UniProtKB/TrEMBL annotation:
InterPro entries: TAT_signal. Keywords: Signal. This is Beta-xylosidase. The keyword Signal applies. It comes from the Bacteria. Residues 1-28 form the signal peptide. It comes from Streptomyces yaanensis.
Amino acid sequence: MASGTRRRRWASVLAVTALAVAGGGALAGPAGAAAQQVDFATHCIPPAIAGIPPIDGTTSAKITVDNASPKVGDTVTVTYTVVTPAASNPTDLALPADIMTPTGKVTLGGAQTGDVTVTGPKKNDPVPGKGAFPSFSMTGTFAVTSPGAITLSPGDYNIHTSYILELDTPCTVTNPPAPVSETVTATDATPVNNRAITLGSASGKPGDSVTVNGSNFTPGATVTLAGRSGAAQTTDTATVTANAQGAISGSLVVNDKTTTGVVAYEGATWSDTKGAGPAAYVVIDDTPAPPNSQKVTTTVKAGTLSMAQAGDSVQLKEVDFGQGGASKGALRTVTVKDFRGGPAGWSLTGKVTDFTGPGAKIAADRLSWTPACVTKAGSPSTCQAGSAGTVGSSGATLASTPNAALTGGEFTVDAQLSLDVPAFTPPGSYSGVLTLTLS
């Protein structure tokens, strides 16, 4: 992040009173458009105690993701749903509810290869003797490391039962990999621009030179130094060459009396991704006033980027033990004020901790939000609400404004919150900390 950028953090405590054992993995978000149910041959080995031979059958499954268009570096949550298992209850003994714990793998292909480990909650409907195992879902995550199309195929899975005895029924894909069920398309992450400049002085007379020093430019690059008048570039320019460490040092003669700042950039024209500044600079006009006249001057002073929130605690709605479900509430309103007057936009992000309670916890990735953002009339920038979805410990964007020639304004940010509480979470109060960061 360029020097001078202010980062502000606020933390809110979110609490949910549950008459509701954290039994499940994270809920998956919307599936990508390519997600489809696929069938594949499976070889399952019943527990030895069952005394029956291996089962060769067909598994029907589907894979969904919470983000079908991630950037390199993003974490994608994967949900592997076995719609119809190839195996069934190998014994004549009926199995009660909530004794099955599934685990498995999702196979990645295309631009990124490997396996994603997925796990499911200990949750199932009762299974009659010799009856078919019910559908179940497992979740896991992977970090995107390469741009391009990444395919996801169902992999091996295991059904573990905990009733009288601990038994496993492993099922493997007969002809791996199984058909592709989902595809995500990853893009290169926007590189962080750490270029920065400082000026030898903040003001001067028309025709004076100002020293410009900079860092983190591309080694050997030709860098243009230029004056700015508000959002427009003046005709005052000079060029320097970045050294092997990416540092620059040069001088710029400033003649334009309307100059408000100085920038430095690589390439033929200014770019937010390869530029630094503007650094504030004022031209002191020493032109004598005509006889019998008075020169009237004023200055518009740049301010700061700040935020304030209308409270630091949120009480979510109660849910019932044995039922669980969505515990809903609203984020305390956040007001963002951008009075910097430069070209940079801002981003407001949030991340949350696990919700801890009486001897148990509710995972952070069970909290989701639906953001909203309103721009005050007359603001140069327009606020954009973040996408609805999981907040989690890795975080998500609540709202932002883009870079532009001139940015700023006042903005009101809100969000509807929903915590997915597992059905048999022990009764009590559960709290997590949601931290907001403005940058």
